[in-house]
Amino acid sequence: MTMLALIRDTFREALARKIFWGLFALSTLMILFFLFLLRIDIVQGATATISLFGMDEARTVDAARLIRRVYGAIATFLYTWGMLLAVFASSGLVPSFLEPGRVELLLSKPVTRGQILLGRYLGNLLVVSLNICYLVAGVWLVLGAKTGIWAPNFLYSIATIIFLFAVLLTVIFFIGVLFESAALAVMVTVALMMMSPILAQNRVAEKLLSSQWSRDVWNGLYHVLPKAYDMGRMTLDLVYERRAADLGPVWSSAAFGLVLFALSFLIFLRRDY
Amino acid sequence: MDNGINSYMTSDHAIETEDLTKVFRNRWTGREIRAVDRVSLQIQRGTTFGLLGPNGAGKTTFIKMLLSATHPSSGAARIFGGDARLASSRKPVGYLPENHRFPTYFTGAGMLDFYGALSGMGAAERRRRSTELLERLGLKEWGTVRIGKYSKGMLQRLGLAQAMMHKPALLVLDEPTDGVDPVGRLEIREVLRELERQGVTIFLNSHLLVEVETFCREVAILQHGKVALQGAVRDLTAAPGYQVTAAGVPDELRRQLRASAPERVRDGFVQFQFTSREEANRAVDLLRCHGCEIESLAPTTSTLEEVFVRTIERKR
Fold first, then answer.
1. Contact list, A8 vs chain B (CB under 8 Å)
2. Is CATH 3.30.70 the classification given to domain B240-300?
């Protein structure tokens, strides 16, 4: 019951601070964008024309393949867009509950610090997950209705986006608990996201870097930090109905999230308020 | 009303601390500040206890250690016999923090519901209890209004309702009447009196010495993190002495009486301060023999404020 109350409280705060509605509005905007600006006509079952902003690019392609490609491009876009929105939206929800005058009252209740942190985390995850479900499912419905081609694999991107967000949320919590700063939490999380595609080029780095030491550092960072880029590629594989080559990024990202959440918990447990 | 007191019968003391100490260390300079220094207090269950002290004496740190918001550097704290660090030990505690910052997205009823849920209350019980408390604290019409619109006094009353929500056996109130108007203060005091009659232990931290003097049975004065004085309010304020006020006292008699009692003149009357009843009676006899008029003979007491100031100055 206490956990449910904490989750509900986070949800209520997200609603009151317009975070939920902001995400909802931006998701709706995105769905409307696909509804009105992207036009896909299927001609004679096998050819298609895709028109974006009125500029036609006529090609004769297999319609289902084309739609899958469109879905893939959109999934990549949503993956990045959705993640950035979610990170920005969530950053303030940690320092807010640690405000002096509020946290003492929470701590005076018969709940453990672990429950408080976990309740906050799950509440935050729920707020974002609902919006991501709405965004991805909404875009999928629009595309499906407009093309007549339904690609259920597109919906896998819900799982990958939520999974990666769950990992990045641990970064937000870690920075939030450690420094009680929303801005810093966003900076660090976005930096990790941006570093991911660079670090993922470890084969290129192997050739470019002169010393073994620097190659080891590069590889170490790649293996330790969350793999937003690899998870993005995995999302594409799922949308294209390809087998994901390696599940390593999932496990290593999950391990990173677990370790960081455990560290956040330890800091929160030991801190004086 | 069941305050759950029977569930916590492991100790006669609502609060017990043993050499409770908190040292804040500056990570860079290594400088130490002893905010609370080996404080040992035993607060009987069912009493009303006031914690006093100048700013920075360590009162709030002491309370935060009791409620596990701050970790002690050494020593121990127990609530109804249970280790204060355990979440379960905080079940019988209601707390109103100083400078609270209740989330403004709550309505009054919503806030009570949330904190009630954290205290382990069921939904139906929370609904019933929040309605009852909002009415009791004069916020009945405000239950559905966002608390961002509440005045300071209303927030204090709502904070008190929050602390009382789960019928705690121990109420820890940090400046409960801060920002409340005199009528509101009286109402709050009445509520607290009612709780006291029901056997709830009330631990009060207030700067308003008159409030503590009228409400609390026991007090402790903290200074520089240490207990400077502790005892029953009645004992601390009862300075053993008698004051004799008379008119028309001849100079020779005044000189004679001044030898055993300090004198002061006020509104044409001479007041003598005696330390014992016998001395005061002897002085009355002498004054009557000299044809002086006795205006009054009364035992003297100190106010808690006087006790407080004396204690702080002595320890400075």
1. 114
2. yes
